[in-house]
Amino acid sequence: FHAEALARVSPGLVRGLVLVDPSFEHDARVRIRAAAALTPLATAFGAFLGATRLAKAAGPLGRRMVLRHTSRRDEAVPDGVVRSVYGRGTVIGTVIAEDLAYREMAADLAGLRERRPFPAVPLVVVTALGDVADPARRREWARGHERLAAMSPHGSRIELPDALHMVPLDRPDAVADAVADAHRMEESA
């Protein structure tokens, strides 16, 4: 959401954009905006986990559980580094706060799309479909990414049928190729 918003709000700062398996919400509305009120609670919960040292166990375990479903690769980062980052309560609190704000950020971006055009810069959308089992959901995810790519007259989409969501871990070559494609398009424009 943030990269697209930057391109729309400050187009002079963006010469091209690569979105790697981005979120796409076709119905991004929220009835109640609670993230601002709940974020201090998430922060306090993270501080509690840090103070009680529960974060040292919960954070790395949570990361492993998420990666088990979003990456085919074994742990790419040394255990000490994972513990030093995800073992901090502030990180856990921040992750919770971001999750709480997700729908609101999606709605804010939908509103921004109505008010600000996407700049005519190269846009490459990388679509990972390996973690979407249902054929109808696969088509819906791919169509959403096609709509994202169509935001720019220089938009394109790369489909990775077997890659999971953490494309930078599983397919860094595809990310590098997408960046190179965007750069080539920008140079030829």
Automatic annotation (TrEMBL):
Keywords: Hydrolase. One of its GO terms (molecular function) is hydrolase activity. The keyword Hydrolase applies. This is Alpha/beta hydrolase. It comes from Actinomadura bangladeshensis.
